[in-house]
């Protein structure tokens, strides 16, 4: 099967079934997200994304009964998108009438069709209107008994995105003499590596300079350390995902935070990015005295 040029997720379904929550999860995972996009604009959006030079690869959209006048155009819009080399996945969220009524009573929000008729009548009217879309869906999820905290896990099991798409690694280099990062999930100590501080030609450089990085990585223990860190990350990622975490902060420390820890962070960053992870980097103490 030919790979799609864009990862396009369309979220639809009953009002109150969890569409807003689902789109927030996709946004947390780095997707470009739009709520309540008119169906007729889907091809134009896809065209713009394809022209972004790869900057926008993952897109999630919500279409619902608020855009009811556009539903008749959905098939035509998707046919146009297919001709552009993009295949979508449609996720349809639903819940029982009893659960939907309870959710509306708890939030006290009006139903999108609430101008006329009772809440039950509007829920049933929406159900009839959305039946053709439900039949088109790739996945139908009943959220009646799914707690909000578990919806993300359910979406993950659909394999519409990889585990690597769900996690952001925040790498922080620091110096122990300035204290450890209080928000770190994991602290790694690299003070066992050879210290460039004692080399006159390296003392006033940082771990981001090639000469310092080469010196640190020239220590026989450096590569073995990084290999073990990679094994640890491979083990930890699914555990964190299972708990609903989407960010892992790793603090890597040396004595002053200027040489060894920034060098190791920079090498680890490259390894993680090569594996497909999203990474942010902070060199907290690289300029500290």
Task: Give the CATH level 1 class of the largest domain.
Answer: Alpha Beta
Largest sheet: 5 strands, parallel
**What would you call the structural class?**
alpha/beta
Round the mean pLDDT to the nearest integer and report it: 86
Helix count from the secondary structure assignment:
10
Q: How many angstroms does the end-to-end distance come to?
A: 57 Å
Shape: elongated
Structural summary, described in words:
This protein is α/β, with parallel strands linked by helices. It folds into two domains: 155 residues, Rossmann fold (3-Layer(aba) Sandwich); 119 residues, no CATH class. It has ten helices and nine strands. Strands 2-3-1-4-5 form a five-stranded parallel beta sheet, with helices on both faces. Strands 7-8-6-9 form a four-stranded parallel beta sheet. The longest helix is centred in the C-terminal third of the chain and has 23 residues. The termini are far apart.
Helix-strand layout with pairing:
Blueprint: E1 7-13, H1 19-28, E2 32-35, H2 42-50, E3 58-62, H3 74-83, E4 88-94, H4 97-107, H5 119-136, E5 139-142, H6 148-157, H7 163-166, E6 168-175, E7 186-189, H8 210-217, H9 220-242, E8 247-254, H10 260-274, E9 278-283
Parallel strand pairs: 1-3, 1-4, 2-3, 4-5, 6-8, 6-9, 7-8
In short:
The protein is built from 10 helices and 9 strands. 33% of the residues are buried.
Features:
Rossmann fold, four-stranded parallel beta sheet, 10 helices, alpha/beta, five-stranded parallel beta sheet, 289 residues, 2 domains
